[in-house]
Amino acid sequence: MYTPDEMMTVTAARSMRNGMTCFVGIGLPSEAANLARRTHAPDLVLIYESGAVGAKPDHVPLSIGDGVLAETADAVVSVPEIFNYWLQPGRIDVGFLGAAQLDRYGNINTTMIGGNYARPAVRLPGSGGAPEIAAACREVVVVLRQSRRTFADRLDFVTSVGFGAGADSRRQLGLTGAGPTLVITDLGVLRPDPDSHQLGLTGIYPGISVDQIRDSTGWELAVSPDLSELAPPSAAELAALRLLLAGGATS
Amino acid sequence: MAEIVTLADAIAATVHDGDTVAMEGFTHLIPHAAGHEVIRQRRRDLTLVRMTPDIIYDQLIGAGCARKLVFGWAGNPGVGSLHRFRDAVENAWPNQLELEEHSHAGMANRFVAGASGLPFAVMRGYRGTSLAAHTAGVADITCPFTGETLTAVSALRPDVAVIHAQRADRRGNVQYWGLSGVQKEAVLASARSVITVEEIVDTLAPQPGAVVLPSWTVEYVAAVPGGAHPSYALGYTERDNEFYKAWDEISRDRQRFLAWLDEHVYGDAAATSTAATSTGATSTGARAGAAS
Question: Looking at the complex, does the CB of residue B69 fall below 8 Å from at least one CB of chain A?
Fold first, then answer.
């Protein structure tokens, strides 16, 4: 047996190809990227905005600045350099982000919910590195748990841009990367329609129904005619994930 | 030339009510002990500048030192919310907190502009986000060569930069290594600077990848072994991840936070000299700090 979170993290890890360069956010993305390194993608290049390029941690770091990242990195650079030289020119294959809220065009809110900007009902941490990661990486993968609260019809604040208002909006804004090509949740996976760029359900996890996913989405969810069921975690994937989260070193 | 003084003297000489203060260090080398000294000296109406406010600014905000926060990401890394920051923004406790919010890349470039003596920096960023509408200091700019629309962000020029480093020599040359954040830019962008160090040594041995700030770019150096805790100094201390997790509980409740502040900050008025005399592990620097 496995949990929905385990299925989500394993699915996110599977999306990483060996040898690609990956700009990693903390939390679920960092767990998934480190799982990928321990399973099918040992040469995945992990880049953290703290300035660690090619980090090879033997456990999941709590923060993006834990000592193990600098100690195992191919190169350690300053923060202006990581953003200006490494991220901004579009030399990173994939940006791997979490989100508090996401809309149908893959725009992300991590700033505030309810009330107004000056006096919000819920103040979230804000943007960090995410806006530029979302703008400049060749592709973006977003990983978050799915509910009516997190999959919002309308965002109170656009912290990081996905496809903006949809259709050609992202290109018109001058954002250089392809945007969020994949969204991975604890229920299934979504991909953008090639024309409208609205996210639609393309993959579903074993034991989850489409109705359940519709009920966990704050907008009228499009479902792909080619909807496929994704394979459950293998025994090897589950063992590697559990060892990773228990703080165990690479075997 | 940098003067080597106690932390209390360095903060008293540089940080005044109403100042704009940048305490930098990106997860690594966060100058927590200096932040506590600012709280103990009961500075008020500060504009606090920092890419990631972290626990250090959660404490300063909760202690009532801040009028305004200039920042990029205000969370407890890997743990969750900064509760004192949230209480200030959501409920104006202990006072209203004005926000000037940017992305990390924007903040980093603003420090670069300040260090470079330029009024602004150019970058690709902010387009299509809600940030620009809520933040002064962000504007479209047209490239004079290609006609492309880019983003300008205004320079940061704090009154004071405060950072923590691994070591300094007796002349006040400062050396640090590992994740180096934006500290060099913050010091060079600011009118004054205070640098706490793990130890003061006779000679700075070369260290791969180290940043050196020559003595003539620094105002004050103070020996404060362990002065980054719960952040860390690579090669000297480890990040105290358990404290970051514990802070979630300590900071959630106003009374519990105030009690923590009384016990660990106000109640520790001799912190600087105590730390400087009792830490045997780095005795060279400790003696230098205590003697000054």
Answer: no
Q: Are residues B227 and B132 in the same domain?
A: no
CATH of domain A4-245: 3.40.1080.10
The answer to whether residue B115 sits within a structural domain is no
Interface of A with B in 63-92 (CB under 8 A): 63-67, 69-71, 76-80, 83-84, 87-88
- Specify if B108 maps to a domain: no
Instruction: Please answer yes or no on whether A67 and B130 come within 8 Å at the CB atom.
Output: no
The pTM assigned to this predicted structure is 0.94
Give the 3-state secondary structure of chain B.
CCEECCHHHHHHHHCCCCCEEEECCCCCCCCHHHHHHHHHCCCCCEEEEECCCHHHHHHHHHCCCEEEEEECECEECCCEECHHHHHHHHHCCCCCCEEEECCHHHHHHHHHHHHHCCCEEEECCCCCCCHHHHCCCEEEEECCCCCCEEEEEECCCCCEEEEEEEEEECCCCEEECCCCCCHHHHHHHCCEEEEEEEEEECCCCCCCCCEEECHHHCCEEEECCCCCCCCCCCCCCCCCHHHHHHHHHHHHCHHHHHHHHHHHCHHHCCHHHHHHHHCHHHHHHHHHHHHC
Of A62, A136, A169, the CB nearest to B124: A136
| B:220-239 residues touching chain A, CB 8 A cutoff | 232, 234, 238-239
What ipTM was estimated for this complex? 0.95
The range of the structural domain enclosing residue B141 comes to: 120-154
Regarding whether B79 and B174 lie in a shared domain, the answer is: yes
- A71 assigned to active site: no
In the A/B pair of chains, how many CB contacts fall below 8 A? 174
Question: Tens of pLDDT along B110-130?
Answer: 999 999 999 999 999 999 999
